[in-house]
Design brief:
CATH topology of the largest domain: Glutaconate Coenzyme A-transferase
Strand order of the largest sheet: 27-28-29-30-31-32-34-33
Distance between the termini: 63 Å
Radius of gyration: 30 Å
Number of strands: 34
Number of domains: 3
Oligomer: single chain
Strand content: 15-25%
CATH architecture of the largest domain: 3-Layer(aba) Sandwich
Number of helices: 21
Helix content: 25-40%
């Protein structure tokens, strides 16, 4: 229906000016305002301008327009602001104690209204013009807005032809609106700000390793998660079930990366609750049947989220302590943002078949002077996500996997993805807290991003996939489990005696000598359930200038698939980068398979016999055979 005709369709008494509609607000009323970029700016201005309105309590999430008034003492005498999430424009006001923050899970806010736990007298909303059937659309703000208008005694709607008409549970009939205020204006634009930089590029690189084709994604509030989206443009058939849609999604829509074909819940549809961004994203969602906008008590309900198989939740944090506790809503005692959708989606992803969650954050704040991976949360900081809920944590220095791991392992996982200059102090603090062994060595203080070049994948002839990467300090426990899983004969061939114990001291010594240049260890890993387990380890260690000793061990069920040969080639390439020209190896005479591998790879290798049972090989890289599988 055109902007000229819809007014004739409505009851004349309902179509009024902003001043007339606002005059219905009485002193002491509790007023709900629509969320974020869907907020009715014209109505807010009219309410503030009416000086007869006094002692009003405002409830809102993601406020923008109110930021224009919070520095005015006369405004604060008339209005009390209560926010479920502190947006950037209101952050300083929150720090100054000028607004009140209500901690709540997004999925539960609508019920606070419906149950009258938070009573509402008036709802100020913004809608699209009604269609020929009398239905307006809440457009870019369905979230808690639907529950707000349904729970309020009086509903005043700003009718804006620029408000997109969105599909889903976004429609409101004119019978359910008390007053219509026609006013055209541009929607608030939001979430433009964070520049792409080296930190976000590296975080995006690591997250892309965790996201598989066909996964369904949730992207949490914050600038970082949306900058990261561009690094998923090589994926296929992604789906979306998320609270918030922004411009960050546009390139993935346009490149057909997001198809929603593989979703197991509402396939073919982007499920969302809110849209914030530029005019570009508003026009994209306008009347687009691919989008299914619903209220937060549906979109953020963990049981509904879990109906999506392979649901990956990606959100951010202000700081994470070395046990895995996550703070998202405060900087010390200063309330900074809100709980938002993080906990809902982390728990929903945990219940999803094949799903998991990722907390992504830069390793430092305040221009690199403060670590975001901390020994303990700042005094006054709130725990939004408990240590029991956290799965993956990602910084620009790598991936920490915490689920199912004890405090000791969590400390090592998180210390190795902290900024290098803070790693040693984190280990010292962990020792002080009795979280780790007293003799624990800190992770390398080097920036090991170059190790990404040493990751590779091999598909075996039985179609099984093996991933290869350098060993890290956090691999201590899984390495011990690997060695204990091997048969006695395999252990004997690797260590030349019947080694029975693989102690913490031994394993720590092994990785502590790995400097990734003179000494290198590469792991082979296979998927088992929801995690990866080690099935092969290949190492080289310098014995003299330009010469390194090489050794391998492969789990028995995967021997004979070419894994040792592949590892040998990988180690050779790394060794050559570090100016080595030869490998040496000691092999027991009975280890026929390993002897065959060395001779096949280096046909002219030098052979000598040591005692009665060992053979020593010297292998020149210029003699190496080339194989297409490397």
């Amino acid at each position: 229906m055109s902007s000229d005709k819809w007014i004739n369709y409505c009851d004349d008494k309902k179509v009024v000016s902003a001043e007339s509609a606002i005059s219905q607000i009485k002193g002491g009323d509790r007023v709900f305002i629509g969320t974020g970029c869907g907020e009715p700016q014209h109505l807010i201005q009219a309410m503030v301008n009416d000086e007869s309105i006094q002692d009003i309590t405002i409830y809102q999430m993601l406020s923008s327009t109110l930021a224009q008034f919070v520095e005015d003492d006369s405004f604060l005498k008339r209005f009390s602001i209560k926010l479920f999430f502190i947006s950037r424009p209101l952050r300083q006001a929150a720090f100054d104690g000028k607004i009140d923050y209500i901690p709540a899970y997004l999925s539960q806010i609508p019920e606070l209204f419906k149950s009258q736990r938070i009573g509402l007298d008036v709802a100020l909303i913004q809608v699209s013009p009604p269609d020929e059937f009398g239905y307006c659309s809440l457009g870019v703000s369905v979230d808690i807005t639907r529950a707000g208008l349904e729970s309020a005694k009086l509903v005043i709607a700003q009718v804006n032809p620029r408000m997109p008409k969105t599909w889903g549970d976004s429609f409101v009939h004119t019978d359910d609106i008390d007053f219509f205020v026609p006013h055209e204006e541009s929607l608030v634009e939001g979430l433009s700000g964070m520049q792409d930089n080296e930190v976000s590029r590296r975080i995006g690189h690591f997250i892309s390793q965790l996201v598989s084709d066909g996964a369904t994604l949730q992207i949490g509030f914050g600038q970082l998660p949306y900058v990261i989206l561009k690094y998923l443009d090589g994926k296929k058939d992604l789906g979306i079930h998320t609270q918030l849609i922004t411009d960050g999604f546009l390139p993935l829509f346009e490149k057909n990366v997001i198809t929603n074909k593989k979703k197991t819940f509402l396939p073919g549809r982007v499920v969302a609750s809110l849209c914030m961004g530029s005019e570009n994203i508003y026009r994209y969602v306008d009347n687009n049947p691919m989008f299914y906008f619903c209220s937060s008590d549906f979109v953020n309900d963990p049981t509904e989220i879990a109906r999506n198989d392979n649901l990956i939740s990606i959100s951010s944090a202000l700081e994470v302590d070395i046990t895995g506790q996550v703070c998202t809503d405060s900087v010390g005692y200063l309330f900074y943002s809100g709980i938002g959708d993080q906990v809902d989606f982390i728990r929903g992803s945990a219940m999803s078949k094949g799903g998991f969650s990722i907390i992504a954050l830069p390793s430092t704040a305040q221009n690199g002077t403060v670590s975001r991976i901390v020994s303990h949360l700042s005094e006054g900081a709130g725990v939004a996500t408990t240590r029991g809920d956290v799965n993956f944590v990602v910084t620009e220095y790598g991936i920490a996997e915490l689920q199912g791991k004890g405090i000791y392992q969590r400390v090592i996982e998180l210390a190795q993805i902290a900024h290098p200059k803070f790693r040693d102090s984190l280990i010292k603090e962990a020792k002080k807290h009795r979280y780790i062994f007293g003799d624990q060595l800190p992770p390398s203080s080097d920036d090991l991003i170059f190790l990404e070049n040493y990751k590779s994948v091999l598909e075996l002839k039985n179609r099984r996939i093996v991933e290869f990467r350098p060993m890290l300090p956090s691999d201590e426990f899984s390495s011990r489990n690997f060695y204990y899983s091997l048969q006695e004969k395999t252990i004997f061939y690797r260590f030349f005696y019947k080694k029975k114990i693989f102690s913490h001291k031994m394993m720590q010594k092994q990785w502590s000598t790995v400097d990734y240049r003179r000494n290198m260890s590469i792991l082979g890993l296979v998927q088992k359930g929801g995690h990866k387990e080690i099935m092969a380890i290949g190492t080289y260690a310098e014995v003299e200038e330009h010469i390194a000793e090489v050794a391998f061990v492969v789990r028995e069920d995967l021997q004979g698939f070419g894994i040792a040969s592949y590892l040998l080639g990988v180690l050779e390439e790394i060794a050559k980068e570090n100016n080595y020209t030869k490998f040496t190896a000691s092999v027991l005479r009975g280890n026929v398979a390993m002897i065959h591998i060395f001779k096949k790879q280096y046909p002219s290798l030098e052979t000598s016999f040591v005692g009665g049972s060992e053979i020593e090989f010297i292998m020149d890289f210029t003699d190496a055979s080339k194989h297409e599988d490397r």
